[in-house]
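DM from R.C. (forwarded with permission)

"hey, sorry to bug you on a friday — could you get me a structure for this? deadline for the figure draft is monday and I only need the backbone to look sensible"
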Amino acid sequence: MEKSRRYLMVAFIVILIVVIIVSVLGILLLGRKPVVLQGEIETTEIRISGKLPGRIDTFLVKEGQNVRQGDTLVIINSPEAQAKYQQVNALEDVARYQNKKIDDGTRKQIVQSVLQLWNKSRSDLQLAKTTYDRIQALYKDSVVTSQRRDEVKALYDAAVANERAAYQQYQLVLDGAQQEDKESARSLVDAARGTVNEVEALLQDARLVAPESGQIATIYPKRGELVGAGMPIMSLVVLDDSYVVLNVREDLMPHFKMGDTFLGDVPALAAKNIEFKIYYISPLGSYATWKSTKQTGSYDMKTFEIHARPVQRMEDLRPGMSVLVNMNSVK
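My reply, with the result:
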């Protein structure tokens, strides 16, 4: 019995020693475990949209297809815009012809007709003056009454007024339109041309092209569907503008400075020690976690968002891939 107790005591001591050794080793190993930051690859994404409302006529690309800058992506059919273009073109023609008519002045036939009227009024005036002079002489000799003289005087005054009016009309025809009328006609031409240019610019969006070289990620509408002005039709991923996004705790920020580089692994490509260069640092919002008072010796850790581009271009780097950064490798 005494011997069994001794065995149990020895076994207990051995187990206790093993537990202590394992605990110490675990603490040491955990203390030496490296801090690894996990980031994610992101790229610039462009939403392709246009100003022209209409119906999708033809897609010239598919999802996942690589395109170059300037390649036509989609064709939009808008009969209303085509009809508007024809209308404003017709209005421009009307304004241009009206302006030409005013600049060319009055037609020669009208000038000749008004000149003849003025010549006739001059002849009538000459006759009225001769008659008036004759009646005036007779009136002085008491041959005609004063009433007869007044009647002839009224006819003479009317002839003078008619001659002046015909002359002014002739001068008006010779001078043509006023300068204000000419400027107004030119302004109408400019306004019509501006409307044509506006519709032409709108019709250019009937064929949407790639603003950058990249890959078509998603196509939203189907062929034949209606799209409105500014409605996204597809998204273009610019693979050449890939970068990693890291969320870094505040106490690790001394290792990350603007313009510095660090090494990261990309498991999806089985690539290690890829060099990235930091070009953007910004604090993330703390929201309701921030406290105005803390116990002595402690504080709330803020998180910073860091963007970094690979120093060397990587062909197969795609959005969503993870990037692992071992803090032991960071300066």
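R.C.: lifesaver. The longest helix spans residues 108-140.
me: no worries. Residues 288-293 have pLDDT under 50 and may be disordered.
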